[in-house]
Amino acid sequence: VISTAAIPGKRSPLLITKEAVAGMKAGSVIVDLAAIGGGNCELTRLNECFTTTNGVTIIGFADLPARMANQASAMYAQNMANLLTHIHGKEKAAGFLPNLFKHLEAGESGDIVSRSVVCCRNGEQIKMPPPPQPTPVKPKAAPVKAKAAAEANPMRA
User: Fold this and answer.
1) How far apart are alpha carbons 60 and 33 in whole angstroms?
2) Which of 61, 65, 37 shows the shortest CA–CA distance to 49?
3) What sign for the dihedral angle of Cα 29, 62, 76, 116?
């Protein structure tokens, strides 16, 4: 649950009571963005993240928006590192351009990720590869009941 109800200059309205928290499943999370005004959750503690006795985590940091830039930057950096690692493979930096060119020259059989990051080569536009088709959902097999299996084979009892 993410609560954001805040009224500047006044106490934040109470939206989540302690009884409501007690009724939540273990592993539930409440992010109270109105913690600085007293919080929308009755149990919010300013500038704290804690877990209740029934396993509900309540986050009440007053500076949560300020923390987002650092987290977003770290996630972007990790994504870029993963992309470069995917393209250069085991050859590290020396393999980056040879691997990239290899996938571009392979056409449709080349790596779709490598081909998707290049828009032009030698002054000519490169056609964007089509998106991969979604994996079809496998039908679930009907569960075999032990009784039906025993009836099918009378030698096993």
Assistant:
1) 7
2) 61
3) positive
Residues in the chain with pLDDT values less than 50: none
Q: Identify residue 87 by its one-letter amino acid code.
A: I
HEC assignment per residue over the chain:
CEECCCCCCCCCCCCECHHHHHCCCCCCEEEECCHHHCCCECCCCCCCEEECCCCCEEECCCCHHHHHHHHHHHHHHHHHHHHHHHHHHHHHHHHHHHHHHHHHHCHHHCCHHHHHCCCEECCEECCCCCCCCCCCCCCCCCCCCHHHHHHHCCCCC
Both tokens assigned to 63: 């500076």
What angle separates helix 96-105 from helix 64-88, to the nearest 10 degrees?
70
| pLDDT tens-digit map of 60-94 | 999 887 888 888 999 999 999 999 999 988 888 88
Residue with tokens 């089509």: 130
Type of residue found at 116: S
Cα–Cα dist 43/58, whole Å: 8
